[in-house]
Protein 1
Amino acid sequence: MNTETAPTKGGFSGKQVLLFLLLAILVTAGITYWLIRTYVFASDFRPVELSQKEQGKLDDKLRAMGVDPESLLPDADRGPIEDRIQRDGDGNLIPEAYSEAGASRVIELSERELNSMLANNSDLARRFAVDLSDSLASAKLLVPFDQDFPVLGGKTLRVNAGLELDYRNDQPVVILRGVSVMGVPIPNAWLGNLKNVDLVDQFGGNPGFWQNFADGVEVIEIKDGELHIELKE
């Protein structure tokens, strides 16, 4: 009589294979849903709202740049109305002699302040946001499509872009680090071969915007979530 036992079969059973297939389908569906929600059918951003104290600091910076904050940001929360700009009894501006004595040539704006200025346009604030990290300004933009647009009609597309801002070798540095759509980087050729190119160094030698920009800037840098610019006399 043969007493040897039959060898144990290797591999997975039919039930195990089916279970693995179902698990793979669920994981793939979850990742696909996250990608679509994050990069294709993106939801609106939440506009930045400054506290009254933060708004007061931003107002002071805008006044130092010669901008009337109440005209630029009429809906900002400033608490009790205080007319810090000198006006006469009829509400008209009081004339004054021009002087640069004691004037500051430094512009400093934080990430929150920049985004709060965008929030003055509620539609723009929900679709455009700025991030400031060391030497890098990044932007997120949501692009809505019309209902009759093929495939993406009525949906919103997410676009990201990065711009390096710094000051080296006695001149400002402005470098496009890239643009992506739906998380996919745009080829450099489609960007006019301007990716990773110092626009000031490339075009600043010719008369025009970049030359004028470079000639007027003493220092430009982004650090600790704040844009710092010093202008020349």
Note: The longest strand covers residues 156-168.
Protein 2
Amino acid sequence: MTDAQRRPTTQVLTFERVDADEQIAALLEVVRGTPLIHLERIRHGAGEPLALLHNWLHGDAAETLTTADLERHGLYELLRARLVRPHMADRIIGAAAATKSQAKSLGLRPGDPLVTVQIVMRDDHGRCFDLGRHVYDAARYTIELRAVEP
């Protein structure tokens, strides 16, 4: 967003410690009950809400994050400063209709279209450290992909 001059800002709605449930533990390749940090944030561009972001973070670096940090800097920028090296992500991209709660957070109507993205991020040692489940206002967000064919 910075490159597109959209002046990105973040509003942190939730910053809490949780124990990994069965589904999240499986995706992060940890044992059920593993302590995690759960974040819920709204990402704005040019003052408009663009995305509702949920992340579940595993590892010591996540423990040192603060709400103030997250409202001033990008999540991965903060993790890199804590020596976490994002390396590879598995992404599942889809679409959904906005729920009442999502619509309220993003300034939409229930049922408006959303782009959904689930991301499992691994570090440079192959360890999962972040599960992201994000929804984006489909009218204000596009995804560009480049594929290199073998």
Note: The two ends are 30 Å apart (CA to CA).
Protein 3
Amino acid sequence: MLRYVFAVHRRAWARQLGLPLTLTPELATAMALEVDPTPPLTGHPVLRDRVAVTFDDGPHPEGTPAVLEVLAEYGVKATFFVVGEQVVKRPELLRRIAADGHRIALHGYEHALHLRRSREAMDEDFTRGIAAIEDAVDLTPVLHRPPYGIYSPWSLQNARARGLNPMLWSAWGRDWRRFTTPNRIARRALVGIQSGDVILLHDADFYSAQRSYERTVGALPLILAGLKSGGLDTV
């Protein structure tokens, strides 16, 4: 069970469980991304000079619009892992995310640790979460990220059985914390950043420090500018 808890922190355990922390060829296929079929050295399809910027926990009535405005200003597309119970409350925000050309993915119907939930509860969570997205924007998600980045054996099996591709992360700003700043968030998100990385941020404060999304919005221009200066595009 420890492998499930710490997979996002230990690449070897993530590989054993088939939980990608970066943009793997399988994720690229699921996301319909163009890949380089003949890169040097590896001989495997890769995404050259591109990273994924992702947001969890929304949609939020203040955080999500503010994030969307920054992304539009920089011409960047991102992936939003949304929570079903929040989608039901504000489906118009999910429609705006889709209209702006961003990818919508599932974070669950409730933001709860999978290890504490029964098989039956997780089955219902997936069903309701997918339905919330389908009802709001008439699309079925193909990507999934569990709350806290932690699956249970049965929830991972359930996700895959539904055709959902797990996507964790390889870089994060730890922007959910109360005592942090936009500069710290940006530095953490960019340290060691390289092609294929997946950056985790949050556009909501429902499950984190109050108004934490304000610091995320402040950090986002710094992150996007840092990616550009490093020659990295976004997907």
Note: The longest helix spans residues 119-137.
